[in-house]
Amino acid sequence: MCMIAMSMGAYDEDEHERREHQSSRVDADFDDERTIYHGEVEYDSGESTEELLDQFEQIKTKSK
To answer: According to the UniProt record, where is the region Disordered (predicted)?
Structure first.
């Protein structure tokens, strides 16, 4: 029985070291200040759960 071993690709030590160096570097060029938003948020909870479920059922039946 003869077995032939095939490699998946040559190991490139220089490429490995380049990638290792690149991934270990910290990118400090980004703007680290947080954006502050001013304003108000309103929630409209006027409809009951039953009304919302009825509306959902109507939407489901229309899409069929």
So the answer is: 1-29
